[in-house]
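Please check what follows.
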Amino acid sequence: MISYAMAVQGNRAPVIEPNDPLFIHPSDHPGQILVANAFDGENFDSWKRTFLQALSSKNKVGFVDGTVEQPAADSPLFPYRQRCNDLIACWILNSLHKDISGSILYCNTAAKMWGELAERFGQSNKAKLFQVKKELSFISQGDSDIASYYTRAKKIWDEFALV
């Protein structure tokens, strides 16, 4: 589990260090878009990977994977943890198509939202596996230059590895 890097001095508010998952950078805000393309129900694995990379860059993955625990309600860290959770929940909602975001809007935590999405869209999709295998079997260079062909083939292989 994550330990919090903070100092509590008397009745003063805790000091959250920049390397702490509870730290929120001044540029972080609820309207921020972390991924370029909103998840619309297709390509969950690639969207998930991109979103986790964005969260990792902000030291916030622990809020969706459960490694940042909820402190006791009387802990001085409770409001900081809640604020981070709400921020991440906004980021998740901002990165989803409105129909999908509406279905998880009332989850209490970012981890619960993440779990709902993974349960619904993260299942191995046999139809998708068939489609990727079909693409792999029919790929050819054709008129493409070698870089374009390699890029297309690599994308299909990487997708195959994730399905």
Summary: Residues 40 and 98 are 8 Å apart (CA to CA).
